Amino acid sequence: MISKFLDDFYEILFKPAQGMKKISQEKNIWQGLLIYLIISVIVSLSTSTYQLRSLLTQDFSGIPMPIELTESMLRFMPFIDLLFKVTFGALLFLVWTAILHLSADVLGGENRGYRLGAVLGYAQLPYIIMAPVSLLARYVPFDFISVASIILFFWTLILRIIGLRETYNFSTPWSILCYFLPAAVLMLAVIIFLIITGAFFLPLVSEFVPLQ
C-alpha cells in the first residue's frame, strides 16, 4: 500500500498528466478527501511554530487588554487553525468539489463527481513539502515559508486544472475556464447586485442630499 502511494506521489509530482489520469480512474472522492485532510494536518502542524512566532511579533499596544492575556490567546491560534481544518475542511472540500463538478457539467463534461474529488484531493500532495520547508526556514535569512507557499499554491493550481482536463476530457483552455467559472459567476453576480442596489437607493439618497 505504501509503495502504491509512493508511485502515485511520484507520478503526480513529476508526471502530472499521467498521474492525474490514473487517479481519476482508480480513486474515489473519499480517498481524495482523506489525502486532503492528512496534508492539511501536516501543513498546519509543520507551520504552527512559524505562525505563532509571526503573531507574537505583532504590536499589541493598541489592543484594550493586557498584553500577557493577548499573547496567551494567540498561542491557541495554531490549535484553532488545526481544529478548523479538521472539522470544516471536509465540508469545504465537498462543497468545492460539487461546485466544480457543476461547472464542468455546464461546460459539457461527461464524468462523475467522485472522480473529481479524487484528483482534487491528490492535487494537494505538493504541500507535503511544507514539512521540510518549515525546518529549513529556521536556518535561512528570509521568509522561506511564504515563498514556498506561493510556489506550492500555483503548483497545486496547475495540478487541479490538469485533473479537470484528465477527468472530463477537456482541453487545457477549457479546463482553465471550468476552474475559474464559479469565481467569475460569483463576481458577476456581486457586480449586478451592486448595480441594482445602487439604482434602487440612488433616488432615495438624492431626496436627502441637496444638489450643489
Low-confidence stretches: none
Radius of gyration: 22 Å
| Helix/sheet category | mainly alpha
Question: What does the overall shape look like?
Answer: globular
Number of strands: 0
Order of helices and strands: HHHHHHHHH
List the helices and strands and how they pair.
Blueprint: H1 2-14, H2 16-26, H3 29-56, H4 67-74, H5 77-106, H6 113-122, H7 130-136, H8 144-168, H9 172-208
Helix pairs in contact: 1-2, 2-6, 2-8, 3-5, 3-6, 3-7, 5-6, 5-9, 6-8, 7-8, 8-9
Tell me what the structure shows.
The protein has 212 residues and is mainly α. It has one domain (2-208). The protein contains nine helices and no strands. Helix 3 (29-56) packs parallel to helix 7 and helix 7 packs antiparallel against helix 8 (144-168). The protein starts with a helix and ends with a helix. The model has no long low-confidence stretch (mean pLDDT 80).
Features:
212 residues; mainly alpha; 9 helices
